[in-house]
Amino acid sequence: MATVAPVPQGTRITICEVGPRDGFQSEKTFIPTQKKIEIANALFAAGLRHMQITSFVSPRAVPQLADAEEVLAGIDRPEGAWVTALVPNLRGAERAAGAGVDAVHTVLSASETHNLKNLNRPVDQSLAELDAVFDVLSGAGIVVEGGIATAFGCPFEGIVPPEQLARIARRYQDLGATSVSLGDTTGMATPLTVQAAIRAIRDAAPGLEIHLHFHNTRGVGLACVMTGLAEGVTHYDAAVGGLGGCPFAAGATGNICTEDLAYLLQESGYETGVDLDHLIDAAALAQDVIGRALPGQLLKAGPRLKRHDPELTLTAEG
Amino acid sequence: MATVAPVPQGTRITICEVGPRDGFQSEKTFIPTQKKIEIANALFAAGLRHMQITSFVSPRAVPQLADAEEVLAGIDRPEGAWVTALVPNLRGAERAAGAGVDAVHTVLSASETHNLKNLNRPVDQSLAELDAVFDVLSGAGIVVEGGIATAFGCPFEGIVPPEQLARIARRYQDLGATSVSLGDTTGMATPLTVQAAIRAIRDAAPGLEIHLHFHNTRGVGLACVMTGLAEGVTHYDAAVGGLGGCPFAAGATGNICTEDLAYLLQESGYETGVDLDHLIDAAALAQDVIGRALPGQLLKAGPRLKRHDPELTLTAEG
Asked: pLDDT at residue B247 above 60?
């Protein structure tokens, strides 16, 4: 078994902003392309460099992301930007190949039922079809980050065995992916499942960097980040303002929140490259565009050392 | 320096329910005494045994808790129950002495400005007055848990030095307290401040058990619990449904949520003694009584292995 070592303090942690993809795709009302670009640019201006900007999916399936090419062409990429898009199939890979992304995030589910429902084919067929997807992308010089949805549990089948994650990760490694991204699609990740998943993948596919993609559906998203850090993982996805959310659990929050994650990492002794005040401004812009309160907590409470009005009075609050 | 060892898996972690005190006190509308008793009883029925049930404060200062004696007299205490109340001064200690609590939670702030505003006296005066409070309580056979508010930061002064926590903890130890409770009054705790506070207190007052009382104001409450566990702490306060909240930060959540905490602990390999389904029922009752959506996430999303409707259709969600 691979040795487990926590991430040392002072390490630069990668935050990959997925709000423009995982967040926006859940929104029913079409967000104007120019607004999507403004939000992405504000996130870059706050110091974020990794961004999953859109999906190359059928516009019939996800009308919100029908403007994938325009968004990609419209954003201002700062020095060091790393822009990715989600691709569910060969058709998506072909669109991505000419669209100017640095990497593609492929996707299939660890659970049979979820893959059937989401991608309309069994897991083994999805795995077989990756050959053609990787051919197209490597031909275009595009890096592939191998995504695994329902990695910590399936809302139809329940528990997902780590061996299934290991099997998929090994296939990704054999195909030449640089990383594997474990998607907590419906917020079922817990410290023990995260630990087991990381260890199984490290054993099966030691050549892959592990990316963790948590949802805060059950309130433990950032606690799972603490487990990831204890297990040595340095890459986390998050969505500005905590955008996202599962359409099947009313009121449940979505992805872990980018600015809350950046705050946690900075206050745990890690480097993020992010200016927290500017990131909160970007979240306020996203909230304004979306038009409803987002679940992010820093957005409501402000930075840690924001002072109360000195005239406030209190009463024995304990 | 004391050695740091994480809490071993399988350990029983104490969850102290503080919703009836820290949660209810923030509610503007008076909650009928009988409803308070019903909620407390539902929490006991879910397996919780430690509960901070009320405060013995001036009814003018906190009218919501004017029924302290009636609530205490009305609850059904199961085998093993440990019922505490907050006491800010000698008058409160005298009321608590005859009211049938197992322990009293005293309170003073680590920061001068917060103590002046909350208790109307300097920290040193509060420390000096503890003699009389401890005399009354030990005379009545009541255990004292020494509370320190604003332990991880003050909303007026900013950073609170760990040396100040150490000084107060040592005073509590000298007086005969069994534990010290670090209160994250306005949600400023972070992994690094929690770690520094625990280590400073272990060095200064090794005879005291450390209790951690986090608010989720900035989203990192349960991440701070992970730090506490890594530092060997086995006692955490939480409020059912995530009740509480700071009246000065609109929309900010309050205490960490009891059922989300129990879920995290169970899914991290610890014992809690809690039946999660019954705990979610108790949270639903509290939400119903309070009459607005509470911040707890399990309350919205349900238990981890709750299945989706098998007829649901999905579309390339990744």
From this structure: no
Q: What would the mean pLDDT of B1-17 be, rounded to a whole number? A: 91
Q: Do B304 and A218 touch (CB under 8 A)?
A: yes
Q: Interior CA angle at A38 toward A33 and A42, to 5°?
A: 150
Interface test with A, best of B150, B214, B272, B314 (most A CBs within 10 A): B314
Phi, psi of A189 (to 5 degrees): -70, 145
- Quote the ipTM score: 0.95
The overall longest dimension of chain A from CA atoms, in Å, is: 68
Cα(B148)–Cα(B136) distance, integer angstroms: 20
Point out which residues pair with B148 in neighbouring strands: B108, B182
The three-class DSSP label of residue B9 is coil
Kindly state the DSSP code that residue B239 receives in the 8-state scheme.
B
What average pLDDT does this structure show over B209-227? Answer: 97
Q: Give the tens place of pLDDT for each residue, B264-314.
A: 999 999 999 999 999 999 999 999 999 999 999 999 999 998 877 887 777
pLDDT of residue A51: 98
Element (DSSP H or E) covering residue B134: helix B123-139
Check residue A159 and give its pLDDT: 95
* pLDDT for A4: 83
Closest chain B residue to A230, measured at CA: B230
| Chain A contact set for B219 (CB, 8 A) | 222, 257, 260, 263-264, 296-298
CATH number of A14-301: 3.20.20.70
Catalytic (active-site) positions of B: 246
Spans in chain A with pLDDT lower than 70: 1-2, 245-252, 315-318
Helices (H), chain A: 33-45, 68-74, 90-97, 112-119, 123-139, 162-175, 191-204, 221-230, 258-266, 276-290, 298-301
pLDDT at B248 > cutoff 80: no
Q: How far apart are CA B241 and CA B261, in angstroms?
A: 10
Quote the CA–CA distance of B106 and B102 in Å, as a whole number. Answer: 13
Number of C-beta neighbours around residue B207 at 10 A: 14
Q: How far apart are CA B81 and CA B71, in angstroms?
A: 15
Residue B251's pLDDT is 56
- Cα atoms in the 13 Å half-sphere on the side-chain side of B116: 11
Told to judge if A16 belongs to the known catalytic residues of this protein, a careful annotator would answer: no
Beta bridge partners of B84: B52, B103
Q: Where are the beta strands (DSSP E) in chain B?
A: 14-17, 50-55, 82-87, 103-109, 143-149, 179-183, 209-213, 235-238
For residues B221-235, average pLDDT:
98
* For chain B, domain boundaries: 14-301
CA distances from B45 to B48, B85, B256, B283 (A): 7, 20, 20, 12
